[in-house]
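Technical annex B. To support the medicinal chemistry partners, we prepared a structural model of the target in complex with magnesium ion, based solely on the information shown next.
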Amino acid sequence: MAKYRIAWLPGDGVGVDVMEAAKIVLDRLALDAEYIHGDIGWEFWRSEGDAFPARTIELLKNVDAAMFGAITSKPVKAAEAELVDSLKGTGLTYRSPIVRMRQLFDLYTCLRPCKAYPGNPLNYREGLDLVIFRENTEDLYAGVEYSPVPAEVAETLSKTAKAFAAFKGLAPTDYAVSCKINTRKGSERIVRAAFDFARKFGRKKVTVVHKANVVRATDGLFLEVAREVGKQFPEIVFDEANVDAMTMWVLKNPFNYDVIVAPNLYGDIVSDLCAQMVGGLGFGCSGNIGDKLAVFEPTHGSAPKYAGQYKVNPIATIMAAKMMLDWLGETEKGTRLEQAVAAVVAEGRARTYDMGGTTKTLEMAEAIASKLA
Ligand code: IPM
Ligand code: MG
């Protein structure tokens, strides 16, 4: 029996291409693992009405970790239109599988390292090394939403919230409500994860991103909890910033940042910004980490127009595999893989199209694998 059972979830579009590339390097590292394919993605939405079928959920209950490619998502009406005829009009609604997976398995930490590998022509600045901790299960992603807004909800809001007066009397279909729900527990554990990381890896500073000056209830709670946690780490500089201002400052003075922690939606946005500073889509890797399971993925989407062309940069997925190796405790292999990526980037011979070259997806993987000897 292999040491690790790993769920292998390529999903849609270029997810398939980049996962094939990741497999090349994992095989070259001779990781003692069994890779078990899981069905996920748009074709299962169309044919079964579920992009994340129950059998795949079962699979994830029995693995050590998972690698995930990408999934195509479409707005509610467009999704409904693509269902097979027998499922149309049955009341199915599309929900993003990755968001469901994060909630179902309580993968509360979204870890997004943004490191500039020397010599990458896409680096905004050489030497950048930011690490983002994004809360991954609650906030505006809670999934508690109304459109149309039920009468009971409107009634309760008008009784309990003064500011609701401005919306009172609107027809249920003339507005919509999405609830931002942040808990003390959810805020505490993500901030603690960020500070624990900072302590473990000798990082100097943690910046807490929020908008507590306006979104006082939820972000107020997040910030209050963050300050409490921060006190337990006196050797680490506690920094806090409003999300809007922070996006300007991080471009102006990127070296003022180190570890960044944010509620779900701000983390989603800030992590794209930071990924762009170190190479963009081809370099953004991500870990969705819980206490029992972790799922690793590139942050780019399925890019349907490039599907099957083996054109996109696999480094994001290969770095996601590196994160998986570290999480499994295979840090020697993880470090070797990162060094191999860094060597290929520095050398500059293999360059995918996003980096201005013509190297194909699997050729890039081979170039990296060849450095693993
Ligand atoms: C991400 C993505 C997802 C998110 C989408 C695909 C649902 O943008 O992982 O950052 O919003 O979390
Ligand atoms: Mg995102």
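Notes passed to the chemistry partners:
The pocket of 3-isopropylmalic acid (ligand 1) is lined by residues 96, 98-99, 268, 299 (CB under 6 Å).
The chain has 13 helices and twelve strands.
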